[in-house]
Amino acid sequence: MTVEPMDAALAGQPAVHPVGATFDLLGDRLTLTILRHAFVNHTRRFNQWIERTGAPPAVLTARLTALVDAGVFVRTPQPGSPDRFDYLLTDLGLATWEILVSIWGWQREWTAAGALHPDLVHDACGHRGPPVLMCRGCGRTVTPRDTEVTLGDDALWRFTSSGRRRARVTESTQAGMQFDEIMEAIGDRWSATVTGLALAGVRRFSAFRAAMNMSPTTLTERLSRLCDAEILRRSGDGNGREYRLTPRGRALFAVFAFLLAWSELAHPGAPESGLRIRHRKCGAVLTPALRCRGCDAGLDRVDVRFEPVSRAGLDRLA
Fold first, then answer.
1. CA within 20 to 30 Å of 247's CA: 10, 35, 81, 88, which one?
2. Which range, of 55-59, 223-227, 228-232, 233-237, averages the lowest pLDDT?
3. What's domain 100-164+176-301's architecture?
4. With helix as H, strand as E and coil as C, how does the chain read?
5. 140 vs 111, 132, 149, 207, CA distance in Å?
6. Model confidence over 271-290: pLDDT tens digits?
7. How far, CA to CA in Å, does 122 sit from each of 134, 292, 293, 299?
8. Which residue from 284, 292, 250 is spatially nearest to 101, judged by alpha carbons?
């Protein structure tokens, strides 16, 4: 499972892994905040993001540059101001909306601050609240238990070895824009791999270590962090100890499914990632989509809108 790819060996470094590159780009609190404002507030200018995120200018510049380089934004001169730019979502950038909706849905249902997040409203039926995951191929609702994950021989080695994570932002963004809790699961490749393996059914310490070739110290630290975040829970002792997903952890499945699907859009010419989610009920590789809980209709970006929580809703929470 740790055989190095030939082209990577000749180049002297691991080949870029599309899923790893996706987690490096989108597994970042400030990046998600930038995209959230682009969708919800139609933010497109540097000074608007400075005002709304509170991020240091140099850090914001680095994130916007990374998103432009990845093809998520295109930078265009502002009319009458050729030295100033608008950052506009590309088709690839627009395709991140399902990831953001899935993250929003997880935070809405599984974090204390989620109740203050805006409502997602389906225009056709008026339903307010998180959608559910479905298989676009067969139209059925999908849970982690309805799927199986297949891994190529060197998939996890390439995922954890290629590329390099940038330093995390330590400065806090403004209230209401936090993604701290989900960063425990997707904020670095080791944590993402442990969570992904747990979603695939791995439970024992030895099985995690064998799959990832991770040092015992690093694995212990990541498992402990995920348990502290109530994404995993420990059971048993000694060699019989297991790490099982909590309901909160299983609810991350949609986020991982959409991140994996988006990685293929973002890196069409890259080598196969070696990671596949197969939907057992139809036998096909899962193509994830969103379904309204109110009317069971499939949801596209133009079918929904975000609305601030009403005053009455805030009063009920008080």
1. 35
2. 233-237
3. Orthogonal Bundle (1.10)
4. CCCCCHHHHHHCCCCCCHHHHHHHHHCCHHHHHHHHHHHHCCCCEHHHHHHHHCCCHHHHHHHHHHHHHCCCEEEEEECCEEEEEEEEECHHHHCCHHHHHHHHHHHHHHCHHHHHCCEEEECCCCCECCCEEEECCCCCECCHHHEEEEECCCHHHHHHHCCCCCCCCCCCCCCCCCCHHHHHHHCCHHHHHHHHHHHCCCCEHHHHHHHHCCCHHHHHHHHHHHHHCCCEEEECCHHHCEEEECHHHHCCHHHHHHHHHHHHHHCCCCCCCCEEEEECCCCCECCEEEECCCCCCEECHHHEEEECCCHHHHHHHC
5. 27, 10, 18, 31
6. 777 788 999 999 999 999 99
7. 16, 7, 10, 8
8. 292
Alpha-carbon torsion, ordered 281, 137, 109, 118, to 10 deg: -170
Give which of 290, 291, 258 is closest to 277, Cα–Cα: 258
| pTM of this structure | 0.86
pLDDT digits (tens, 9 = 90+) for 93-104: 999 999 999 999
pLDDT at 107 exceeding the cut of 50: yes
What's the rounded Cα separation, in Å, for the pair 137 and 311? 40
pLDDT of residue 159: 63
Backbone angles phi, psi at 64, to 5 degrees: -65, -40
Contact 234, 208 (CB under 8 A): no
pLDDT value of residue 150: 80
- Structure tokens that stand for 106 in this block: 């997880």
C-alpha of 42 from chain center: 21
In angstroms, the Cα distances linking 193 to 123, 213, 228, 230 are 36, 11, 17, 16
